[in-house]
Amino acid sequence: MDDDGQAASIGARAGALAPLFRGRFCDVLLCDRAAHVYRKDELLYDMGARERVFHFVQRGVVKVGTITEGGREIIYDVRKERDVVGELCVVDAVRRDRAVALEATSAIAVPLEEVMDALAAHPALLRDFVATFCDALADAHAQVERLAADDVMPRLAGVLRKLAGKLGRTVGERVEIATYLTQEEVAQMVMARRERVSTALNALRRRGIADYSPRGRLVLDMRALDEYVACIG
């Protein structure tokens, strides 16, 4: 498997677990714990770290990704308030991913042992935890297949939809991505060269599907995006 395929496999596992740690379980687990504040571009943890710790985001946005053997940075997810970061410590004693604050962020750190104790006290959640890992393996294969197709526009559209769902806010008939992202960061999410993603974004801008706000944030016409991708597909 090449660098992008390996990153896709890691990313699929990482993104699948976050929904399990929301709601009452999260509220009980985090009771009376203090949050740490991270500056923009500050690491929550880096590749190679051995601390097996979950980070529960209270405020801000975090990018989760990796650096390939070829030196490329790849972003496979963004996490926001009430998401969890670092859950791959369940399966990897040494970090193969990294988490970086995209903006001022506060997060609560909880050791793996304490998370597992809490899961043991909630059998139904523990079953979901195991099932989610199995589903993530299938997602990883699907991601690798999409990379093999090497078609940037559908992959970019998928990333834009994901960002709109997680970070978007409605502005009239459009959706604004409420966090500033550079074209390089978007390219790292698409797992493609910045030049190719820039060309694809410019194509969307010419069609009025994507634009930038005065603050440099992406603004999307989601219906037009879906129609365009269906047309070229």
What secondary-structure arrangement, pairings included, does this model have?
Elements: H1 3-17, H2 24-29, E1 36-38, E2 43-45, E3 53-59, E4 62-67, E5 73-79, E6 84-85, E7 98-101, E8 105-111, H3 112-120, H4 123-149, H5 152-167, E9 168-171, E10 174-177, H6 183-190, H7 194-206, E11 210-212, E12 218-220, H8 222-232
Antiparallel strand pairs: 1-8, 2-7, 3-6, 3-8, 4-5, 4-7, 9-10, 10-12, 11-12
Helix content: 40-55%
Query: How can the largest sheet be summarized?
Result: 4 strands, antiparallel
Structural category is: alpha+beta
If you average the pLDDT, what whole number results?
85
The low-pLDDT segments are none
Using only C-alpha atoms, the radius of gyration works out to 18 Å
Task: Give me the number of helical elements.
Answer: 8
Strand % is 15-25%
What is the string of SSEs from the N terminus onward?
HHEEEEEEEEHHHEEHHEEH
N→C terminal distance: 26 Å
Number of strands: 12
Brief descriptors of the model:
single chain, 233 residues, alpha+beta, four-stranded antiparallel β-sheet, 8 helices, 12 strands, 23% strand
Description:
With 233 residues, this protein is of the alpha+beta class. It is 45% helix and 23% strand. The protein contains eight helices and twelve strands. The protein has helices at residues 3-17, 24-29, 112-120, 123-149, 152-167, 183-190, 194-206, 222-232; strands spanning 36-38, 43-45, 53-59, 62-67, 73-79, 84-85, 98-101, 105-111, 168-171, 174-177, 210-212, 218-220. The strands form three sheets. Strands 1-8-3-6 form a four-stranded antiparallel beta sheet. The chain has a four-stranded antiparallel beta sheet with strand order 2-7-4-5. The chain has a four-stranded antiparallel beta sheet with strand order 9-10-12-11. It starts with a helix and ends with a helix. The model has no long low-confidence stretch (mean pLDDT 85).
